[in-house]
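#random but structural
TW: two for the price of one
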Amino acid sequence: MATYNTEIHTGGGGWQDDAPLTLSIANRNDVAPGDGAPATGTTVTWNGDAGSGSVTFFDNGSSFQGTAQFPNEGPVGYRGTLAD
């Protein structure tokens, strides 16, 4: 499990702080270890009532970049850095 401080990028608004993202994938420790971050190059995609997104991890899982779309909003750039 890993928690990231995140930001979204809107068309004219630049990068803005967003809620932290905690990544926990049960039964697939090769994707997201229970005690750490995903490996560089790992891509995680999700879709549900709270929105959708796709992110790829870099720098041994210390950061990610991708896109997200939240209910009643258009798609935005989405990035994060591993929280301390």
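TW: number two ↓
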Amino acid sequence: MKSNTAARMKPSWETPTDLSGDAVVEISGSLRKLLADVFTLYVKTKNFHWHMSGKHFRDYHLLLDEQSDQIFAMTDEIAERARKIGGTTIHSIRDIAEHQRLKDNNAEFVPPQDMLAELRADSLQLTRELRVTHKLCEKYDDVATASLIENWIDETERRTWFLSEIVADR
């Protein structure tokens, strides 16, 4: 009886897809890393939003609030795409920490221009990581994931552009 209950409680992770098993493993693994990076960038952006100071406080505070909303919106799309193709995604804060490539910033104080420059650099790195995953999707002919990634690249490049214009204005 115990094994029968366990069998009923065990979730089925298999999702019908025409992608190969290798494609599912590699693409969902890459999406897991992207998701960890996006959560890292989200938390860092909110951190800097909460700790903004200086003469451009209002403008920067609002910019980072807007950007953090855009970044957070990516998280559900990334995770759901991994699940749609039959993969799994992150489960916890520890899982994020194990997969993230972007670095945290735990400094007590960061000058506003340094905050923006760091977010700009992180956004550039995220764009590079998105392109790597896009190439992986092309390798396996995963057009749907590649299409989503193209939109995320465009959105990330726009955020990078805004940050670049401010940082260049030093």
